[in-house]
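User: Here's a chain of 360 residues. Predict its fold as tokens.
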Amino acid sequence: MVEESQRTISLPAASRPVVSALRGFSAPVKLSVDAHPSDAYVILAADSDLFNRWEAGQTLAQALILSRAAGAPDEVGEERFAEAVRRALSDQSAEPAFKALLLSLPTESDLALVMQPADPAALHEAREVLRTRLAVHLQADLLELYTRLQDQGEFSPSAEQSGHRALRNAALDLLSANPTAIVRKCAWGHLAAARTMTDAMGGLSALLQIGGEPLEAALLSFYDRWKDEPLVIDKWFALQARDPSENALQRVKALMGHPAFEPRNPNRLRALITTFASGNPARFHDASGAGYRFLTERILETDAFNPTTAARMIEPLGGWRRYRPELAALMRGELLRIIETNGLSKNVFELAEKAVNEAS
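Assistant: Prediction complete.
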């Protein structure tokens, strides 16, 4: 028997090995390597260690988005990334749930933690460019995958079926970045045929990305069906708070007048207001400062009847120093406005003051 240390691997003369470090390693560590940047594309496309493959994809996506957001787009790298994802999707040995994760790019909130100073508008635009490039490059693959996963037979909460649903929803979400006629049809049909809340929200989310009259009709239909289920309607409000369009704030303001919106209900308030402030960075951090003013007004209103909830709503303004100077000044100004308000509760005053002083 040949010992492990004696084994050799023959490689073609032109090949260069790519190191996939810490395979199967479960403890959290920080690893610094001097590997060639292009190695990550190989790991994403073909590594047998699924965590390393996912991490390579996230690292590449982050670098490509940040590079474009900084004004130095790497279009060749973006195409290589799209092709590596395509190869990863074709791996028949990988679980569907894992493939669903591969289709998800880093969130704008996570990217803002890396970019210094953070520019939410630039990050949103750069991320959407990469999403669109992926959607165009992978359209045939995603449509084939989406269609193949359509018939799962009788519903089951099994891990296998859950993975299939996750992958099908992820495929539709990415396809919505390039909303062709067939994609629009898929999104509407996905919602209409949904047998689970996961699929219903997946279809509604895809339509939100696409926008237009079909979205408004779908929102009304969904509300009519689930209006007697408070937790589901919370999801309905939260989804709309993430509206990626430039009219997001107008939509949120209009929803405050909806019969189902109850400002004294903490869950409903968080679903709409906090989700907009924390989960829709590109629109909350609008250069006009309108998002900041809107949140401040809601904090002051809420403080009159629920100081605890109002205090928790301050958090989106608290990281002001991480953003572009002009945005930081507007955010800090709103915190000072809160502090200077007469009759403020102790909870809100202390957290707002802490947010100003800790960032100074």
